[in-house]
């Protein structure tokens, strides 16, 4: 019964995230919240209710985690309530500060591991327990509603990918993949090798077929689990906010540096934290993602590029230290 509740909860979270990707949905919800500003407190209440329901279902509810999440969602909600909803889409310096404060609070507390994104660990059958990063998607949903609905800031994250987006996405992938390969392989940060997830080849396919199958599986999985989430926050929120006050190139560079620094806590390339080589590589990748977002105004385009680069990284490059 508990697993069934969790599965239903995951589906509801996914449907909510997809719905919030539509600007019209966020705008309508924001207008409803703005009718009575106290309604903004529904956001942390619903997040805490969701956490409590799914965690109680599998006997993993904890008071410390509940209190931490109450502060995590409650602090930015207090800021939003005190500063009030936006009635139009004009953008001032004050709006920049407020929106930045919300975006950085939501992301940095996750990145610095102050807030655990893995709300649950579930085991199905004889498999090892799987961590469910429900907190990441809850945080993104909160950000979408808070910034785009309540604050009326266009995050450019509708579910749209135009034909005209194909060329800059593909061309940037070519340039970015060659650049990353040259830098990491020549410096010894990585070595070329097929990932273990491909080489066992449980389907018994020839390697010439197993590799394309692995790519076709990995790209959509990374797109959903990492690409969309990080692109909404770093490109849709941070880079988009910066370009209201800076030249697009300045916004691109600063957002990419922030993106790189956000990866300094990652154990990769054979380095422990703080992982400055990985932060540098991530900054270069961020320049590519941000460039595509700048040229297409599409989160879907930058998230697609993000997923393609990460797939190359996961399947074919190993930390070389």
Automatic annotation (TrEMBL):
GO MF annotations, alphabetized: endopeptidase activity; metallopeptidase activity
Which is a Pfam family this sequence falls into? Rce1-like
Q: Which residues form the signal peptide?
A: none
Membrane-spanning ranges: 6-21, 41-58, 64-84, 96-114, 134-150, 171-195, 207-234, 246-264, 276-294
- GO BP annotation list: CAAX-box protein maturation; proteolysis
Q: Which residues form the CAAX prenyl protease 2/Lysostaphin resistance protein A-like domain?
A: 214-312
Name under which the protein is recorded = CPBP family intramembrane metalloprotease domain-containing protein
Species in which this protein is naturally found: Candidatus Methylomirabilis limnetica
